[in-house]
Amino acid sequence: MDDDLFIERALESATETRFLLTAAGARHDSAAVFEKQFGTAPAIVITDESTFAAAGRDVVDSFHRNGHPVADPFVFGPDVYAEDRCVQQLQAALTGVEGIPVAVGSGTINDLTKLVAHRLNRPYLAVATAASMDGFTAYGASITDKGSKQTFDCPAPQAVLADLEVIAAAPPGLNASGYADLIAKIAAGADWMIADAAGIEPIRPDVWATVQSRLHHWVSSPAGIRNSDPTALRSLVAGLMMSGFAMQAARSSRPASGAEHQFSHLWDMQHHTHNGVAPSHGFKVGIGTLASIGLYDELIRRDLTSRSVDDLMQRWPTAEQLESKIRDLFEPGELAEKAVEETRAKYASRSQLREQMNRLHAAWPELKQRLQQQLIPFSRLRDMLAEAGAAFEPEQIGISRTRLRLSYEQAFYIRRRFTVLDLAMLSGEGEAAMDELFSHTGCWAAGAGRS
Ligand SMILES: [Zn+2]
User: Fold this and answer.
1) For the chain, how far is it from start to end, CA to CA, in angstroms?
2) Are 98 and 71 a contacting pair, CB within 8 Å?
3) What are the alphabetically sorted keywords of the record (predicted)?
4) N or C: which end of the chain has fewer CB within 10 A?
């Protein structure tokens, strides 16, 4: 089965998106695609200044050529961010204007339009101008509200156009960022495997296959991403869109997000910036993927069944002990409260805990082998990120080794999802494994990376 047929199958099980076109010059077909989805309803194009120049103007022209009613485009200025202020601005502009939104841009424009379209009870069409993340076809929009990043419930676009010509000419780093967000599914998949083995979150085979069955192929030409090779970009778009479809089908980000995204979310919640700007989602997730895979490599090297379940049960901290650990690790404030809430939500009863540990111990010899097949070794993954033009050392996104070591500790607490961080805790090997990663022989040894 080729990618096209595979995508068609996934569209059949996606709950919101009905149509995807990936082609060079797809922007010129916007009006035709729009008419198939929405009939004669008028359209309104949403862009920013740079995506208007890259594709928005041609999208508007396609409506004019077809004699299809289209309102004046709404063009954001240069200070457009996925934040509440811009949501209000767009919502005010669209209220009272008849028209189905056509979002022309990458993550920010898409997320803003997704949320506002939903609030105004309208479907929308997305025209992707960069393959920068997997959110185009995902359920939900990631928006900063009152200073903290939140995911708002709202449906994915009804149809998506990905113009490979425009994507190939996207500003430097954007497609590399999407590449890192895609390769992250290697680690996210491993996390789902262990959550499944522990009896916590069973794998849904159809959703698993949507993301995982071609993943190694989709990420196989990192240099092609850097060079804007059309075949490599087509694979990247396919992988990112399919990840979104999987999230639509699962109504959860589980198929596409694990511990590696927790590192990124942690840094978002800490309002991390580097040289005055927040690093891209994909660059943060790429470093998070290395962090996750480094930990997997170390845990796989160890015998996770060497300590008896009884011994582990005795050492397991109480909920109160965990809470006081959180108070030590985080500054007082919103993030600390979130960590307390999430940690409480995943705190297992003694009997649940015993059952999880028993299952993991029983599964480990075979699970370890399946994990090795799933994962890409740390040094290879780092080279792939580098070849694609993504960040491959934490310092490139302004995260020191000391901060990364602390992030390993903190990331465990900020989300209830079961990941490699939980496996490390549950095995009793977590502290020693993390210390090893930062020792002079570990993957995060100072100066260990490629130049
Ligand atoms: Zn992501």
Assistant:
1) 40
2) yes
3) Cytoplasm, Lipid biosynthesis, Lipid metabolism, Metal-binding, NAD, NADP, Oxidoreductase, Phospholipid biosynthesis, Phospholipid metabolism
4) C
What is the 197 CA–ligand 1 centroid distance (Å)? 24
SS3 235: helix
Distance (angstroms) between ligand 1 centre and the Cα of 261 equals: 7
CA of 357 to the centre of ligand 1 (A): 29
| Residue range(s) in the chain whose domain bears CATH number 3.40.50.1970 | 3-168
C-alpha 237 to ligand 1 mean position (Å): 14
Paired strand residues for 103: 46, 126
Please name the residues in contact with 252: beta carbons below 8 A apart, sequence gap of 6 or more: none
Q: Give 167-182 as a DSSP string.
A: HHTSPTTHHHHHHHHH
| Ligand 1 centre distance from Cα of residue 286 (Å) | 9
The H or E element that residue 149 is part of is: strand 148-152
Closest residue by Cα to residue 156 from 182, 124, 187: 124
- Across the beta sheet with 43-48, the strand order is 19-23, 159-163, 125-128, 100-105, 43-48, 74-76
Q: Where in the chain is the domain with CATH 1.20.1090?
A: 174-203+252-437
CA distance 182 to 257: 10
How far apart are the CA of 243 and the centre of ligand 1, in A? 9
**Which tens digit of pLDDT belongs to each residue from 171-210?**
989 999 999 999 999 999 999 999 999 999 999 999 999 9
> Residues 382-386: what's their mean pLDDT?
98
- Relative to beta strand 125-128, strand 159-163 is parallel
Look up residue 324 and give its two tokens.
């006081």
Q: Ligand 1: distance of its center to the CA of 253 in Å?
A: 9
Residue-wise pLDDT for 332-370, tens only, equals: 998 999 999 999 999 998 999 999 999 999 999 999 999
Alpha carbon of 83 to ligand 1 centroid (Å): 17
Distance (angstroms) between ligand 1 centre and the Cα of 265 equals 10
Buried (b) or exposed (e) across 88-114, using 16+ Cβ within 10 A? Answer: ebbeeebeeeebbbbbbbbbbbbbbbb
Q: How far apart are CA 70 and CA 10, in angstroms?
A: 31
Q: Which single residue is written with the structure tokens 């499944």?
A: 196
pLDDT above 90 covers a percentage of the chain that reads 89
Centre of ligand 1 to C-alpha 388, Å, is: 17
Residue 24 alpha carbon to ligand 1 centre in Å? 25
